[in-house]
Design brief:
Helices cover about 45% and strands about 10% of the residues. It has about 400 residues and is of the alpha/beta class. It folds into two domains: about 325 residues, TIM Barrel (Alpha-Beta Barrel), CATH 3.20.20; about 45 residues. The strands form two sheets. Strands 1, 2, 3, 4, 5 and 6 form a six-stranded parallel β-sheet that branches. The protein has a three-stranded parallel β-sheet with strand order 7-8-9. The longest helix is centred in the N-terminal third of the chain and has 24 residues.
Length: about 400
């Protein structure tokens, strides 16, 4: 009888112990799951304009900047850690200027200044960040616990008419060239420059640029390119091409975004579209006539801010733009709207052909992810929608790295 009682007590105790363990094992939060996943995968943003900040004397990328403060920028190394972003493509952006020998020389000099600043960043913060030139470099740096900096070049204008400069920039570490920006250039026509209503697509010189990119292993980026330019480049390139910061036109009708026909053509050539975080490319803004009028007056006064070379003038214009934003706030897209674009690409061509390219410090930012510290929220939204870890890994860099490796493998 005593043994039975002891057995009964032990059994009851075991039941309570198991029950208590079961209660203690609460499921992890979506954020915890996202952060655990980011520890395991390589996360890559294929476009930002933050490299300009490296030329400033009053801003250091190794310091954390309060996003609420003016002039803080959207990316620094501490906030990359907070947002769970491993690798960033810093663009050496040069706005389109006159297509003259003097214009080409100034553009080349500007691009080289930005590239030099990126090398200096790696020298100044050797324990925090390293420059990468191949996918393997990126994975190695992640294992070492460092942030990863790649170099891109936005706008082929610094090439001038000098084809050998493609290889020269590649040797300096540049791994992609965005062929064009907001204005037509010698390489191809832009999606947003219709001063000439005819879309002439890729020029004969542009075909030689694409061929040289293929030869040396330089990725060809067709963000900002016109539709005819896109299809011409796709036909001309031996290697897969990509869009470093563009979104889906079917979700947000903007000439900077890619149509479903373009998505299908890109996928057939094994390329990838990197969804852009610029709100106007993510969701059509609500009509705001007062804001539109104020912005038109600003542009008439200063011209295209992205192409203003006078830093003092640019700073003054940006301050006036911020005041316009305060007086006439724009309706903005959200992280959920952004993930709608990923959903759409997955539906049209599959999960293997989509990634992320924020355009931070070039206009990128949505509610919930207005700077790099919010990048983790994109993963959280994908988890809520039932994306698998493997799918999320592909979006965050796996797909882009496939294209990157192929471009390098096909060189020669």
């Amino acid at each position: 009888m005593i043994n039975r009682r002891i057995g009964f007590v032990l059994t009851i105790g075991l039941v309570f112990a198991v029950a208590s363990c079961t209660v203690a094992k609460t499921p992890p939060t979506v954020e915890a799951r996202a952060r655990e996943l980011h520890q395991k995968i390589l996360t890559v943003d294929t476009h930002c304009d933050t490299a300009f900040g490296l030329l400033r004397q009053d801003w250091r990328i190794g310091d954390r900047h309060d996003p609420a403060q003016r002039g803080s920028g959207k990316i620094d190394l501490p906030r990359m850690v907070e947002g769970g972003l491993d690798a960033e493509f810093f663009a050496a952006f040069v706005g389109q200027g006159p297509r003259t020998p003097e214009g080409y020389a100034k553009a080349k000099e500007r691009a080289l200044q930005v590239i030099a600043a990126l090398y200096k960043m790696a020298e100044d913060y050797p324990t925090l960040v390293g420059l990468a030139f191949t996918p393997d470099d990126a994975y190695r740096l992640k294992r070492e616990g460092k942030r990863i900096a790649f170099i891109g070049m936005e706008n082929g204008y610094p090439l001038g008419l000098d084809i050998p400069l493609v290889e020269s920039f590649f040797k300096r570490g540049v791994r992609y060239i965005t062929l064009v920006h907001s204005s037509d250039n010698d390489i191809c026509d832009s999606a947003t420059d219709r001063r000439n209503p005819e879309d002439n697509g890729l020029s004969e010189f542009g075909r030689r640029v694409v061929a040289e990119c293929n030869r040396v292993g330089m990725l060809v980026d067709i963000s900002h390119a016109s539709e005819k330019s896109f299809f011409d480049v796709l036909a001309a390139s031996r290697a897969p091409i990509f869009a470093s910061h563009s979104s889906a036109r079917a979700v947000c009708d903007n000439p900077r975004n890619l149509s479903d026909d373009q998505l299908r053509a890109l996928a057939r050539k094994d390329g990838v579209i990197q969804i852009c975080f610029l709100s106007a490319y993510v969701k059509k803004p609500e009509p705001n006539p007062d804001r539109d009028k104020a912005l038109q007056a600003l542009q008439a006064k200063y011209g295209n801010l992205r192409e203003t070379r006078d830093e003092a003038l640019r700073e003054k214009a940006m301050a006036e733009r911020e005041e316009i934003n305060r007086l006439y706030p724009e309706s903005r897209a959200t992280v959920a709207d952004l993930v709608d674009h990923i959903d759409h690409v997955r539906k049209v061509v599959g999960i293997d052909y989509v990634g992320l390219g924020t355009d931070f410090d070039g206009g990128g930012g949505v509610i919930g992810c207005d700077d790099v510290s919010g990048m983790i929220h994109v993963t959280e939204e994908m988890l809520r929608r039932g994306y698998t870890e493997r799918e999320i890994e592909k979006v965050w860099g796996g797909n882009f790295m496939r294209v990157f490796r192929k471009a390098l493998a096909l060189r020669g």
